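EI: anyone free to look at a 182-residue chain?
SC: sure, send it
EI:
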Amino acid sequence: MAIRPILRLGNPVLRQIAEPVTEFGTPALRELVHDMLDTMRANDGAGLAAIQIGVLQRVVVFEVSANPRYPDAETVPLTVLVNPTIEFLSDERDSGWEGCLSVPGMRGLVPRYRSLRYRGFDELGAPIDRTVADFHARVVQHECDHLDGILYPQRIEDMTSFGFQDELVASGELPVAAAAAD
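SC: here you go
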């Protein structure tokens, strides 16, 4: 398959709303998913939304295992999630440092809901229904935000906790362990 260029903050495509997938198991959807996985892995990402490679479809992929950008993160199973919906299970939120392949070299402290239930389908149309918490829930929220044209800096409540990774580390604002999580 192929590693595709990742759109960066400022590209107007990233502000659009992705369209639902209407046909599952097609060669085009299979190729899209393979390209997304290749692109995510080549860039040591935890996830990627189709919109980040310029495809306006409601498709995200994510996986965290032995990832150098997330050395201390809990394992998140490989997931291809098509037409996702999210249900927050409580009002409890935690703030955590996030980065994004579309916002390279920067970090921000982002509040996210701690637990949620997500539903959708895999690329063949098989249903997915999971209840998750903590880092897994953060990854799902981050990737699904992309489908609605939202990038993580829009979720930051205190812009003094947003900046270039190297500057945040040098100032002591960003712990070195969190810096690995771009």
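EI: The chain has a mean pLDDT of 94.
SC: 👍
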